[in-house]
């Protein structure tokens, strides 16, 4: 699911003190390592790359959870040893990597010269560059946002349920919360899963995150952040939130038990819904090409080459090949990770992809349309992702459990200041 994966490749570039201490094997082959987390869909691709490059061998270090993976990444960065030649970075942690861009190679300098910015969606490419314009990461997948909803629950509440007919409900956040009030009034049940999930989606649509472009904490002076906080907590207080912690057991079972009627839905969320709601709910869930505020992105990763690598050019060649449109389409077919490459978005394998669970929707075409709605990448300062994960989300959970929105907001301000230093 478009969550980052760390990859270590043993082939053309080996971290000098990286995932293994050998630069070249006894057989004379260049040994590369690649580090990834969750599912990138690279297992078959790495085998193919070694077949095409018999002078390269690759070791793939794959971690199940993105959180521990990124903690280890920054520990190894600080120690200047232990990183793979190719390292995956999830977009939520990218700002911390860009703040340490001096420790990574500029892929525009060491990578293949035919790999240019026009390979990627403009916003995806820009997000992988540092303030000096150095390209720190080749984009892998993205998580363009649409809205998923339960058709049967909408019908029971007197709301339209056809994917085209529901689009006006999801046109703006105001219309979304207004429809939520109608749903709660008609059913007495929750409209969305949690305050935090909605707040994060709203927040990520702002031009800047919790920091200014000068990396000054902006949480108190940025009125849009507080306005989003007030809107979400007010909707939750009116009964719209199911008060579930994302990816918890209760949240997982909520898809099956109809604990909420709508879900912010990046492309990879379709797989989550199918897995958690189960076959008995096939056809009840639907997805529509609409999202409040126009569009957004949740998830996706980049492949980087740390300066620890002893074979940076070979590592960059591997990362470039893995992020080529052809390979990203293969990864999409295997795992559903949605490509960020322009050519891949019009590939027949993607455009013709349908999903019977969601009523036969042309899911590939739908999310390609949503990807095109994302504008400039949000500027995130160092610590931005940590504030969202460890400060705003717990504070919103506290509000759902009875803390006043004002007190919860003060927790956010205080916690953000500690992280910003």
UniProtKB/TrEMBL annotation:
SUPFAM superfamilies (alphabetical): Periplasmic binding protein-like II (SSF53850)
InterPro entries: Bact_solute-bd_prot1, SBP
Protein name: Putative sugar binding secreted protein
Source organism of this protein record: Actinokineospora spheciospongiae
